[in-house]
Structure formats: C-alpha cells, structure tokens
Input
Amino acid sequence: MSAVNRAAVEAVLRQYTDPYLNQDPVSAGCVRAIDIQGDRVTVRLELGYAAGLFKSGWAQMLQMAVEGLVGVASAKVEIDCVIAAHKAQAQIPGLANVKNVVAVASGKGGVGKSTTAANLALALAREGARVGILDADIYGPSQGIMFGVAEGTRPKIKDQKWFVPIESHGVEVMSMAFLTDDNTPMVWRGPMVSGALLQLVTQTDWGNLDYLVIDMPPGTGDIQLTLAQKVPVAGAVIVTTPQDLALLDARKGVEMFRKVNIPVLGVVENMAVHICSNCGHAEHLFGEGGGEKLASQYGVELLASLPLSMLIREQADGGKPTVIAEPDSQIAMVYQELARHVGARIVLQEALSQAMPNITISDD
Output
C-alpha cells in the first residue's frame, strides 16, 4: 500500500467547491492543517463565515473523498467557523465589539426589507454567529414587533451612557421604538433623525457580535448617507420585488452604496411568485426575473428569491419570524442560504479589498 502525502490530500480537496465561497477549500485558504499519521488523515478547515448548519455535511463529504484515496484507512475532517472583524470597526465608539456591520436596504417601502432583515439576523444566529439587529427605520420602526418585544419595553441604561440592547430569540435588538411611545409619530427633520441614528449606533452597549444587521429606512436620503459616512459598513443587501417600479428604486439604492464605497453583497427578491393555497397554481403577480436582471446588471449575486407568502407576514407580525416559527420549512432554508451567502460575500469582499492597492490623490 503506497503512503499518502499532503499533495494528494490537497488534490482531492481541490475537486470540491464550497458553494458559498465558489472556490475549493485549498484555493479559498480554508485549510489550517493536514495531519498524516500512517494511513490516518486529519484535515482541519476554517470557514470565515457562519455555517453551523452546513459544516457537518460539508465535512462528511470531504471526509469520504479523502478516505477514497489509496493508502488512507480512515480520515477525519474538522471544520470551525471563525468570523474575522472588519478592519475599521474599532474606530467607532460602541462598535469596538462588533466585527461586521451589514446594512439591509431598499429603494422603496413595502418590499419586505424589515422582514428580510429580521430573518437574516435570526438565520445568522442559527448558524452559530453572535448577532445584533439595529432598527434604523426611525420613522417606522418595526423590529420590536417582529422580535416579539412587548409594547412599552425600555432598554436598561448602563453607566448613565449606554443603552443595553434587548435580547430576543438569541439576538440583541435595539430600536427607536424602545425609546418612544408606539403611537407617537417621529415628526423630525433630517438632521434630528441622523443624530438619533448615530446615537443608537454609537451609544448602544453591543456585546461581542459577529454581525450587526442594520434595518435601514427605505430610500436614499439623509439617514442612508449618515450611516454610509459615519459607520464602517462591511456590505449592503438590497431588497426588492420583481415589479418594475421597485427595481427602478432598487437601482438607485445600489448606485448610492457604490458612490459611498460600500460593497453591495447582493440582491434579495421578495414576492417573486405566488402559489395558490387551493389549487397550487404558481403566478408571478409582480413580474418575473426582476431580481435576477438587477443582480446581473450590476454584477452582484442574487442572494435569495422568496415567494409571496401569507405565512411570512403572519409569523413576522406575531413576533416569531419564519426562521424561528418554522425552522425546518422550505422558506426558512432559503433564509439560511441567504445568511451563509451574506457571510461568505463579506469574506470575499475583505479578500478583494486586501488584494487591491491603496490609491491616494493629493492636491499637490
């Protein structure tokens, strides 16, 4: 029996592509150790994104591949998820313990942005990440309702300086709704709103978080610009429906993030298709393929396509979004895929930014 070596093990690993990084584990730099003891092989991989529900199946597949090598009697593949910090986070008070900030945005209201943000945060937590969500929709905060936080709940104050976020479903939640009455409209001008947002971001005592999901207000106004300029966002997720009007506004959202040098991680298409509960007939009420066209136009990924479903709405309104209410459902699995794709895109964006040279322009 011929002896196995590291090159042979790497050659086998190169035959399998990580579906989220779109690279094999060796090329993606995920291999941390290959230990060969006679005919026994142990491989240790490290993923830079949260993949708690994916890694065991991935490990088993790679293990079977390595065991197929001539000279290998048994193999073991161990996979850890280690989330790296976005390099600029430590510059902002209150975000020093937050590794990555993800903005969930839309060009217009009513496309399911807040529901997507809530389910994304919960899906990241199910994958093993430590997650927080900030409701930056100052005029219409809804995350408190979606996370089942009772009306009138107020955050505790720490050291007369910090808001302590409220924990729900394993996620740290902070919202303007926790500081005001639910029936009181925020009749504020732009500068006041921007100031309130910055206070929520920088004066919340976030724990050690892998991801902070920010539910942005719709549009491309003051709040969006303030966040882009003052907060080191690792990437943005654009939410739209296939409808032409929604896509028009979503394009403006993509362009805005590009102008302020925030990577667009991809597009989420909501209300893509309606399945009749009586006959099972599928109908594209808001058009077909719009999200895919938008993603293709801007060279980004279509991260998820979700149906127009009454359950998604009812579960979010009831304080238990789909990922929590029906974790094994097909729709919940789409959100889990979304979470893994978002985490992986951040890893790829970080790798790309490190590979690019810094260009400085002076007035001299």
